Amino acid sequence: GQQANSLHTRAAGSVSGLHIFHKEGDHEDLAPQLVPLDYTTCPDVKVPYELIGSMPELKDNPFRQRIAQVFSEDGDGHMTLDNFLDMFSVMSEMAPRDLKAYYAFKIYDFNNDDYICAWDLEQTVTKLTRGELSAEEVSLVCEKVLDEADGDHDGRLSLEDFQNMILRAPDFLSTFHIRI
Amino acid sequence: VEWSGECLRSCRREVQIKVEEKEDETEESSSEEEEEVEDKLPRRESLRPKRKRTRDVINEDDPEPEPEDEETRKAREKERRRRLKRGAEAKKFVSENEGALGKGKGKRWFAFKMMMAKKWAKFLRDFENFKAACVPWENKIKAIESQFGSSVASYFLFLRWMYGVNMVLFILTFSLIMLPEYLWGLPYGSLPRKTVPRAEEASAANFGVLYDFNGLAQYSVLFYGYYDNKRTIGWMNFRLPLSYFLVGIMCIGYSFLVVLKAMTKNIGDDGGGDDNTFNFSWKVFTSWDYLIGNPETADNKFNSITMNFKEAITEEKAAQVEENVHLIRFLRFLANFFVFLTLGGSGYLIFWAVKRSQEFAQQDPDTLGWWEKNEMNMVMSLLGMFCPTLFDLFAELEDYHPLIALKWLLGRIFALLLGNLYVFILALMDEINNKIEEEKLVKANITLWEANMIKAYNASFSENSTGPPFFVHPADVPRGPCWETMVGQEFVRLTVSDVLTTYVTILIGDFLRACFVRFCNYCWCWDLEYGYPSYTEFDISGNVLALIFNQGMIWMGSFFAPSLPGINILRLHTSMYFQCWAVMCCNVPEARVFKASRSNNFYLGMLLLILFLSTMPVLYMIVSLPPSFDCGPFSGKNRMFEVIGETLEHDFPSWMAKILRQLSNPGLVIAVILVMVLAIYYLNATAKGQKAANLDLKKKMKMLQLLVASNKYPESPEKVHFALLFKSNAICERPENKHC
Predict the structure, then answer these.
(1) How many CB atoms neighbour CB B277 within 10 A?
(2) Where do the EF-hand domain residues begin and end (chain A) (predicted)?
(3) In a designed cystine with A170, which of A73, B63, B597, B706 is the match (CB 3.0 to 4.6 A)?
(4) Tens-digit pLDDT profile for residues A4-39
(5) What is the span of the domain harbouring residue B687?
(6) Domain that holds residue A150
């Protein structure tokens, strides 16, 4: 919470004004009947998850449901304009590495217990391979991951373990990125 | 400053500002009212009870002060002085910040400042937006990224970056060399070097001749030979030879700077990772490419991820299989032997082609067909096309892990292209030496010709000058062979033929093949789309290498043909559109996605190497070959760099020339070199030290994590990290840092 807030203020400048404007337009286009044209009175409008999940940038992503849940207000996938902007701000090119790592951790933490446990890993691997690996192979992969990245040997990945591992990955910045 | 606000039921508001000293009775107060003017309600003042000033209140209510003795009187004096001082400070503070409160004399200035600050912030934001909107081709690249993933898009990002670099080179050469000569130099036809020779005049404007960059194209600002060697030209006294030389050097310097800057920017991204510690973790968490926005690509990506996992798992399980080591070693040796043969063969082919082209140059151009004229360029392009496939074939023998095989392939293609380039340069040097020999003969001829002309001139003078004045048309003057223009022409021709080859390859290899597969699939025995030939994949490394080597040509040739950066700009511009179209229309995403993951720096490293290797011949030519005697801005000098010495003598005051001559004293130069070597050593040591300190900190962090986990602190992790980090440090033992 605290950490996220401080990282958030850093990321506030990440998305350039042009992109925000473009994305605001997008938010309207998703649901023109829901989204009012004038936001000055700060209306409380939420775009339902189904519409978010059908956006061209997200519709082929196996983790789109988790992304929407992480960035939405109540964790149910329905997003307000602020959530929407936050999502694209974090996923943009300019967001700092540790901010991305923090949100990546939350996305891959399926049961929201602040740890990536073996079950979360299994879910991730299954989603990545669309169920084409056998159960034995999936569990072997999860074991290997915990072997490699679990620094405090408690059988699950904490935020520190995850950050330690992901910040060294050469591809992380280029793959954890949505261009708008 | 204490604010006290009173809100009434009406919409008027009153703001009171009281500056109050805590211990003191003195009070400085300025209270004003700010009212929302309501016409109906009466003004507050008349209704408000008169507020007594506290000073007066105190004076009224206090009892009579007691008679004082000396000490208390002094204390009171001191007290009073202190009060006055603080009162003055408070007054100053209020008067300075009155404006911020919307009151007093500072109000307008403050409001103005605020407005300007807001306008400035808005202007900066708009400017940032404008800059972001100016970046070209962003939408195209996004479309490609979403369909093909980030590795294919990296080629186009690289292309765009090269476009930027070339744009700067073009601006330099155009504005400082071509434009001045065009505006202020002597026009076409005024000097022998600027005119097409009489013998070639008839065909000077033919398309065939122009396409070869002979004829009118040769005698224009596009090439070195057109430029005059006068020290200054035009009314501004623009020093063209000096500018030519300096721009050449500046282009090289700028290219080095920009490539190094790009490389150092990428170094930070690596994080010093070791490749294999987090193999599976990285596969799980970073293999999905969030840029993908296309179901077909997503399909491919899922498949490749699954395959990746399966391979990694089998590798993990079958770690200790001992195959027949000797057979593998023999096969690898065989493969390398074949590769060596191929490289040697291609080098010899190029050398032979260059020799042949020299023979053709001696013959009459009309007897040569199109192939003979373009033979050498065709040979180089075809070799560049077919040899990589051969290398791929040989790599089957080797049986390496695909990533390693990719690196070997890239290395071999690089060696091939490099070898070709250098054979080309050697052949060129051969020709240059020939031309320099030829020049001596031509010089001898010219002295004879001049003698004839003088005789004719005297003869015409002795007659009664009734005939037309004696005049030798520039086109009739015999010319020396201009080796610099010849070099420039070779590079320009090579670039143009390279462009055409690439485009034709894409059209035939990709587009026609795609059409064939798509439309003939209905009436074919086997499924063309899944079997052979199917659609082509976009060959990232081949394209990037081609781009890098073409840039090497540009760097080599732009000193002798100032138009070369301009031609390259055109080429890159059209390439961008053409290749974007071809990729989206005819290619499919790669089935096996292998990224040489640090490939960004790999390609930049190759670019740097090529830059270095291509500027070496140019510098060699500048420093050691004599310029032609009758063409170019350095004609008449012994060496090209003498233009600097000449400028120093003529244009700088004499004391400066003396100083610079002292500076080139060998003793001083050696001392400077020693200092630079020492600086390099020192910086290297510092960098090593910092890396070690970095590793040390990382280890400490790991220890802390263990500590935190074992102690199970309920507080937030950062606080604990901070506390433990400092606890373990000697700094905390000092008394002043007790708060640690």
Answers:
(1) 12
(2) 137-172
(3) B597
(4) 444 444 434 444 333 444 454 455 466 666 666 666
(5) 677-709
(6) 97-179
